[in-house]
Amino acid sequence: MLPYGRQSITDDDVAAVVAALRSDWLTTGPQVEALETDLATWTGGAGCAAVANGTAALHVAYAAAGVGPGDEVVVPPMTFVATASSAALLGAKIVFADVEEETYTLDPAAVAAATTARTRVVSAVDYAGHPADYDALRAALAGSDALLLADAAHSIGASYRDRPVGSLADLTTFSFFPTKNLTTAEGGAVASTNPELLKRARRFRNIGLVRERAEQRWPDEGGWHQEVHEFGLNHRLPDVLCALGRSQLRRLDAFLARRARLVARYDAALAELPGVRTPGRRPWARPAWHLYPIRVLDGRRREVYERMRAAGIGVQVNYIPVHWHPVFADLGYRRGSCPVAESFYAEQLSLPLFPDLTDSDQDRVIDALDAALRGVPARTAA
């Protein structure tokens, strides 16, 4: 089965992990700070806190923003459930706002309508690697105290109006899951240009420990002393995985370039294929292209999904609208509240896209899609 996403691991990656394994540090050590420094070169200098995974990054970012009971967090439904659930676990009420028709990113007009005096955070998701319209979202929040969060799980290395993702919002979260644009196996990061938010993020990911003597209440206890002023959790990313991430970052430019070439090939091959619509993009965006999401028209998405899977092509659907999950339905959220996202979901299909996808394998995907749409068996791979 040809997967929709796959990590790219080289001998250099293996050597970096082996070197970390043979060092004095397996958990938090020098590779953590080094990875955070390396990541900052991709975020326009925004400081970074490495964490255990992309969901942890969201949890840490919401905690850093002070999200708690009585607060509202605005989220698009076209995302992985963690964008909403990690805020709900802190006690926030989730408010779903619809997405734009072309990019399936958060609609600024919907945000303006959803924002209230209780809104603590608005979370924009860079769906498929295409940045949300951050200037328009800022304008939609004019007069509000809400923080803007970029869920950039799909978009490290992307840019918006020539500004890098990571520098566009008050807080930005990344995921380094194996199918993402670089991997640490499991892992993620929180970025912020606000030193106070970054400090809060780093403390929360480390159980809330305060080790700086100048900030302790009882600093003269001894060299071993540490305090917890606010509760946190262990969301740390170990040295051995940070070593893998640093090695992967050296190839991020190449990863992004290969993804862009594959997207251009898909665009050209599918432009005249009846029954599908290729992903849109805005002229001010340089997407990172984590996904290649097509729309299968005329109510045929499930049929095409099953035909392509039967042909050995691991297409995927990204994502079930978050408010459709039973956990949110049981809280009173109803289908029909975000019609653009729900219409997109009914047609969405992600085609395989990853740096090691060969041109011949991509041609196999295209042939299988054409065959599925025509209702004939796909050619058998040689």
UniProtKB/TrEMBL annotation:
Swiss-Prot/TrEMBL keywords: Pyridoxal phosphate
Transmembrane segments: none
Record PTM N6-(pyridoxal phosphate)lysine, positions in chain: 180
Cleavable signal peptide: none
Obligatory cofactor(s): pyridoxal 5'-phosphate
GO BP, sorted A to Z: polysaccharide biosynthetic process
Database matches in Gene3D superfamilies: Aspartate Aminotransferase, domain 1, Type I PLP-dependent aspartate aminotransferase-like (Major domain)
Record-level Gene Ontology MF annotations: pyridoxal phosphate binding; transaminase activity
Listed InterPro entries: DegT/StrS_aminotransferase, PyrdxlP-dep_Trfase, PyrdxlP-dep_Trfase_major, PyrdxlP-dep_Trfase_small
Active-site positions on this chain: 180
UniProt keyword Lipid metabolism present: no
Keyword hit for DNA damage: no
A Pfam family recorded for this sequence: DegT_DnrJ_EryC1
Family indicated by similarity: Belongs to the DegT/DnrJ/EryC1 family.
Name the record gives this protein: Perosamine synthetase
Organism: Micromonospora echinaurantiaca
